[in-house]
Amino acid sequence: MNVPVDPKTLVAEMSPVSTSEQIATMKKALLKNIQRSAYVYRVDCGGCNGCEIEIFSSITPVFDAERFGIKVVASPRHADILLFTGAVTRSMRMPALRAYEAAPDPKIVVSYGACGCTGGIFHDLYCVWGGTDNIVPVDVYIPGCPPTPAATIHGFAVALGLLEQKLKAETHVEAAGETAALPHPDIPYALRVRLEREARRMAGYRQGRDIAEEFMALLEGHAHTPGSFSLSERMLEAIGEERDPRRAEIIARLADVVQRAIRGEAPRGEAP
Amino acid sequence: MLKLLKEIFRTGEATVKYPFAPMPVCKDFRGKPEHKAEDCIACAACTVACPANAIQMETDTAAGSRTWSINYGRCVFCGRCEESCPTGAIRLSDDFELAVGSKADLTRKAVFTLADCACCGKPFAPAKEVDYVARLLSQSARSAEEADRLRLTAATCPACKRAQDVHHIAGMGIARQMEAGLSKTGKPAKELETTP
Ligand code: SF4
Ligand code: SF4
Ligand code: SF4
After folding, report:
1. Residue B180 has pLDDT above 70, yes or no
2. Which of A114, A165, A189 has the CB atom closest to B73's CB atom?
3. Closest C-alpha to B102, from A111, A79, A171, A33
4. Cα(A108)–Cα(A83) distance, rounded to whole angstroms?
5. Which residues on chain B are in Cβ contact (under 8 Å) with A190?
6. Which of A186, A225, B110, B182 is the most exposed place for a label (fewest CB within 10 A)?
7. Where are the domains of chain B?
8. Ligand 1: lining residues by beta carbon, under 6 Å
9. Cβ atoms of B69 and B108 closer than 8 Å
10. How far apart are CA B71 and CA B59, in angstroms?
11. How many C-beta atoms surround the C-beta of residue A190 within 10 A?
12. In this predicted model, what pLDDT tens digit does every residue of A32-77 receive, in sequence order?
């Protein structure tokens, strides 16, 4: 008989470390006194090493974290700030806790990267704890996969109280009668889909969407203010004005899609 | 020594001014996914596409609401939400300053209301999505009558549509049912018109 097993009973639930009042006040004093001497120890709890690479690029001369006295040290016993990267794999839990215990109180814990914040892309893996805050109390979260060196510097500035955090929790509630606008209502739906599809096929979703939007703005502009040019003249002009040959090619193809639609032919590559 | 000094002057200062001056980022930088809830139709395409499950949807039929939420702490900045969004409501911005002190500030939510099925009256899809689809379909309708029919179709839940189709087919003569069956094996079904 296979009795359903509650997966919760199979894993040991270990409570995260908590800090006392006294340490919290000491931490406030530390933040005031730390000024320009923040020693950072980096604990890799099983990430992909992308985060480590970005940490090291933020201590290169270009970003130069040492301007703020941020130094990476080799032992947790010298550290004021502990930087946890990675999703905390099961086997890294004890070493991570040992590093945490070894650092002298008061200490600031920074959770680095999407993995450190919540487990990131590995959050539901069987072998991870899913985030630094599941094992130790965290003071600052720096999201990113990996955070860019500039984001790292910003995160440290937030941790040291130099900058305010920018993000705030927000909830949008749908207003009565709120509707999403139809994109380009003047262009037939079938034509719009063909244009978007062709542009995306040629340039990918980001640039493709941008080019398609520009092109459809051109079509709409023509419809609203026809002027003395015909549509094909106007499209040829747009192609001629384009400096980037790749974009010119894509716009030429979009113009071809429009011409075919006007002639009532099936789009290229599709049976009529 | 002079050579070294010369080299230093030639190189200039390599260090960026950030955070004392804004940091320029390149075009199409993948930063924080910016969600414009006004343009969102709560279709959940981004929820399905998100590889890290940073975007999640919760449907509460009792309260008649669907809550969209994003956790910036879990996002891996892949851009798949932007790729899949039909209305362009979500787009990766060039904002990278995401560090926070409390985890709650990493989430953003949007609450949408559910529409009731035009047939059975049970909530089945977000009202904004139903409205958007109805307008999109009636845009390409040939007549006002067809537009009305398409609008009604969009406002009907899948279960009711299925029931209607079965009813419709059962009402047909046996010969037409056979024809409809045949059409599956190659011939186009011209006669069988069910709800699109
Ligand atoms: S956050 Fe991203 S880059 Fe950093 S360790 Fe995790 S997967 Fe790697
Ligand atoms: S960028 Fe990728 S990980 Fe981030 S919310 Fe969009 S789909 Fe999810
Ligand atoms: S894909 Fe776009 S419209 Fe659909 S739920 Fe996501 S953000 Fe909203």
Report:
1. no
2. A114
3. A111
4. 9
5. 140
6. A225
7. 18-114, 117-165
8. A 47-48, 50-51, 85-86, 113-115, 120-121, 145-146
9. yes
10. 17
11. 11
12. 777 678 899 999 998 899 999 999 999 988 888 888 888 899 999 9
Name the pTM for this structure: 0.84
Closest residue in chain A to residue B54, using alpha carbons only: A120
Q: Give me the CATH topology for the region B18-114.
A: Alpha-Beta Plaits (3.30.70)
pLDDT tens track for A76-101: 999 989 999 999 999 999 999 999 99
Provide, as residue numbers in chain B, all residues whose Cβ is less than 8 Å from the Cβ of A166: 95, 97-98
Whether the upstream peptide bond of residue A106 has omega within 30° of 0, thus cis, is yes
* The two three-digit tokens of residue B185, written as one number: 């094996």
What integer pLDDT is reported at residue A11 of this predicted model?
62
CB of B50 closer than 6 angstroms to any ligand 3 atom? no
Asked if A182's CB is within 8 angstroms of B135's CB, the reply is yes
- What b-and-e string marks burial along B148-176, b requiring 16 or more CB atoms within 10 Å of the CB? ebbbebbbbbeebbeeeeeeeeeeeeeee
Say how far apart CA B1 and CA B142 lie, in whole Å: 83
Number of CB pairs, chain A paired with chain B, less than 8 A apart: 167
Q: Which of B103, B107, B114, B138 to mutate to test the interface with A (most CBs of A within 10 A)?
A: B103
Start-to-end C-alpha separation, chain A: 59
Tokens encoding A72: 């990476």
Confidence (pLDDT) at A1: 54
Any residues with CB less than 8 A from the CB of B18 and at least 6 apart, and which? Answer: A63, A150, A153, A154
Q: Is the pLDDT of residue A8 over 70?
A: no
Residue type, B25: V
